[in-house]
Amino acid sequence: MHEARLTLYELAGADLELRFSPHCWKTRMALAHKGLVARCLPWHFTEKSRIAFTGLETVPVLEDRNTAIGDSWQIAQHLEQSYPDRPSLFGPAAALPLTAFVNQWVDATLLPAMARILLLDIHRLLIPEDQTYFRASREARFGATLEDIVAPVADNLHHLRQSLAPLRRQLRSQPYLAGATPAYADYCVFGLFMWARCTSSREVLTADDPIDAWRNRLLDAFGGMARSATRPFLPCVGGDDGR
Ligand SMILES: N[C@@H](CCC(=O)N[C@@H](CS)C(=O)NCC(=O)O)C(=O)O
Question: Domain range for residue 133?
């Protein structure tokens, strides 16, 4: 049962059970970390009016009793401050700015690199109105058609894997980015892998990548919550990435 006071608006595909947003996954993991259960409502890109009360046009949005919070980072702060008796999302005070840095690194560097792999897969999973909006907004953002953005598959995968180098090195000596146990820094990066898992049949890591073991640990966390998330039925993507 969810706690009646918490409602999370999450991006959904044409299949309303398909919740694939990397930012919403950060919040899902943060809620689970705090041992909180929210009522999770599906939301589509073109349903801006449903979240207009936040003044924002993006999800996640969390309603906690009479407060509405938008932006995954703000939501994480809210959860930490409002539920101090639950496990900390950040750890000691010094870890907060470092976690903020990880969040920025993910959003500025890893997210666009992952987008170049997933954009067309995402488009296929949306309701028609969202498809039109998504194509126009992302093509304007990236300056090319969705098809052209994803076409250099091998280069795009290579670029993402190279961008993941700091994470890979860190995970050679510790199980989680935050140390011995996972924290919000881990969820910031993990959200990206849920984005891939819930939209595409393409494996973005090589089989021997140490990041894979970390990803598996987080897929299994909280009773396998992330592992059991709905995935799309997709034909296997053909073609070798060549690396
Ligand atoms: N900085 C925001 C970014 C949220 C965001 O971009 N969410 C996407 C879904 S992954 C969205 O709602 N996009 C709406 C749009 O593109 O119009 C956060 O961390 O919550």
Answer: 95-224
